[in-house]
Amino acid sequence: MSQPLEIEDTPPEAELIFGDQLPIAEKYAQLLARDGDLLGLIGPRELPKLWSRHILNSAVVSDLIEPGQSVADVGSGAGLPGVPMAIRCPLANFTLIEPMERRANWLADVVVPGLGLTNVRILNCRAEEAPVDSFDVVTARAVSALPKLLKMVSDLVKPSGRVLALKGAKAQDEIDESKPLMKKLGLKDFEIITVGEKYLKEPTTVVQIGLL
User: Which of 4, 60, 136, 206 has the smallest count of CB within 10 Å of its CB?
Assistant: First the structure.
């Protein structure tokens, strides 16, 4: 018999981050654990760090979102970072853009109604097919290297909007590789921001790109 999958317990910092929205976040974790491997959303080896590496790491990015803003999460996949951000930031509007049909259907048919997320909609399309100049903020996590990502998403952002790319230790290298694209894509500036320091042992690194 196969051993039961070890799923990370809800850590105490989850309540600090989500507050009274924690039950919704816990239900999302349950859906990810149940369907993630089957749909290729998240592998079984990730379940012991489901909260710390994925859900909380994504949720704290909502510190950079203001109420009323429109946010597009490109290549959303399992809904990361968009769903945890939407749970934590119910006064902003989120569009999860996912090109793979089975993942988009899971988000639309299971996650959004299952969690009661009235501030989330799903688009089953590639980033290049999404409405241009439509969003205050575009987010992306584990989609592609920054130069390629910016070519994909810069047209989606409203004038003076922002791209928030979740990155790791090589964030500065990716910024350096992207700087030759600044004029062509209408990029204004780059900034490396760390979010979640007061909650997480390993805070989230975000590259914030401002657009003209």
Answer: 4
